[in-house]
Amino acid sequence: MQADHGLRQQIEARLRAFPWQAADAGPHQRAAVAITVVEEGFGAGVNGLPVPSAWSVEAALLLTRRSAALRNHAGQWALPGGRMDGNETVEQAALRELAEEVGLELPPSAVLGRLDDYASRSGFVISPVVVWAGEARALTACDAEVASIHRIPVGEFMRADAPLLDPGDDAQRPILRMPVGDHWIAAPTGAVLYQFREVCIGARATRVAHFDQPMFARR
Fold first, then answer.
1. Cβ neighbour number for residue 210 with a 10 Å cutoff
2. 95: burial class by Cβ within 10 Å (0-12, 13-18, 19+)?
3. Are 4 and 163 in contact (CB under 8 A)?
4. CB count in 10 Å sphere of residue 118
């Protein structure tokens, strides 16, 4: 699956047709994350995934490992994102966080659409914004927040064993994980990635707000 104009048009059309659902923030803080479609480049640097020997134009998603020095969610997999500032829109916040965390500045026209809000156990309502970045060759990690940057091939999220579901505190809220290489990514990031797979690639209107997080991801 190449990161070409046809894929961009497909994702944008499927997001336009998808009636994404908002969540009432209530006492929660609002946050935005960027689901960034890029070319795979030289690979993800993740155990269990092959690393291409030359620049690859296969479609990938941009993920980070959070700095071990952070107070919340240290060392965890994440999509670039964070708290919304002032009167920012969700889209403005996602693009700002993308620039701050990985040095990728994109115009508003890069936004393809939105997925469902997800209310996390750590007190945030997370709004995912899908953006198109193409090559995105010049990425720079923010030392204070990002330990490493990874380009995960979209095909990896299409694995037959995904998602992994475990029993949770509530029988109606199984804990979701998305396998990646020899590891996995927990909800909420894993839930957002699963919905991207279902809606944008599989054309299935799948909801994920009911999936829960493992205990370590709730802090």
1. 12
2. buried
3. no
4. 25
Spans of all domains in the chain: 5-154
Domain 5-154 homologous superfamily, CATH: Nucleoside Triphosphate Pyrophosphohydrolase (3.90.79.10)
Residues 6+ apart with CB under 8 A from 81: 31, 32, 33, 34, 93, 94, 97, 98, 101, 126
Partners of 38 in the β-ladder: 60, 134
d(CA 38, CA 57) in angstroms, rounded, equals 8
pTM: 0.93
Q: What is the pLDDT of residues 89-136, one digit of tens each?
A: 999 999 999 999 999 999 999 999 999 999 988 888 999 999 999 999
Supply φ then ψ for residue 216, to 5 degrees. -65, -25
Residues 6+ positions from 73 with CB-CB distance below 8 Å: 66, 122, 217, 219
